Amino acid sequence: MKRIKVIAPLVCALAAAVVPGAALAGQGGARSSSFNECRTDKAFPSGNYEVNNNNFVGKQECLTGKRGAPAFRVNTSGAASKTHGSDAFPNVFVGCSWGRCSPHSWLPKKAAALGGAKTSFQADERAAGTWGAGYDMFFDSKPIRDGQAGVEMMIWLNSKNAYNPAGHWPLVTIDGTQWWVMNWETTGASGKHWRYVQFRRKTPATGVKNLAVRPFAAYLQQQGWITPDWYLLNIEAGFEIWSGGQGLAVRNFSATP
Question: What pTM was computed for the model?
Answer without folding.
Answer: 0.88
